[in-house]
Write a structure and sequence with these properties.
This protein is an alpha+beta fold and 140 residues long. The protein contains 6 helices and 5 strands, in the order βαββββααααα. Strands 4-3-2-1-5 form a 5-stranded antiparallel β-sheet, with helices on one face. The N and C termini lie far apart (38 Å).
């Protein structure tokens, strides 16, 4: 079964346009990700969610990134998701440290044994390491 990462820019292009002036560095997007496998898209938002690939409320993905193939059956994936679900709830969500990208990374590691692209996972640190990011940190 093919495993793909759906990448969405929650800023819809504004991060790319405004980040150089605001942050002093280029940020290409405010990333949300979902993992597509077995005909479903799995993502973290107020708990573990599932939807039709590209048919979630995030719209069409900006990019679809092939992550590899898995031989893990859907039933085993469901067991894994149930096992990790206490760590991915509305109460555990943290914009900077525990978000949809961390979920996608963990599921991808389970399915294909590798991480999602590092530029997606490092985005919060990239922003927080700017002067504006440091000023915003207490509010986030």
């Amino acid at each position: 079964h093919q495993v793909t990462l759906h990448l969405y820019d929650l800023s819809q292009g504004m991060a790319r346009a405004m980040s150089p002036a605001l942050l002093g560095r280029q940020i290409d997007g405010v990333w949300h990700t979902g993992i597509v496998v077995h005909g479903q898209e799995y993502y973290f938002g107020g708990g573990i969610q599932v939807g039709y690939p590209g048919g979630t409320h995030f719209g069409r993905p900006m990019q679809v990134i092939p992550m590899g193939e898995t031989h893990i059956p859907e039933e085993l994936l469901q067991e894994f998701l149930a096992e990790i679900s206490p760590r991915f709830t509305m109460h555990t969500y943290n914009l900077l440290r525990w978000n949809c990208n961390n979920f996608s990374n963990e599921v991808t590691q389970f399915l294909v044994g590798k991480e999602i692209p590092s530029h997606i996972l490092s985005l919060p640190d990239d922003v927080m390491n700017t002067p504006l990011g440091q000023q915003l940190m207490p509010f986030l």
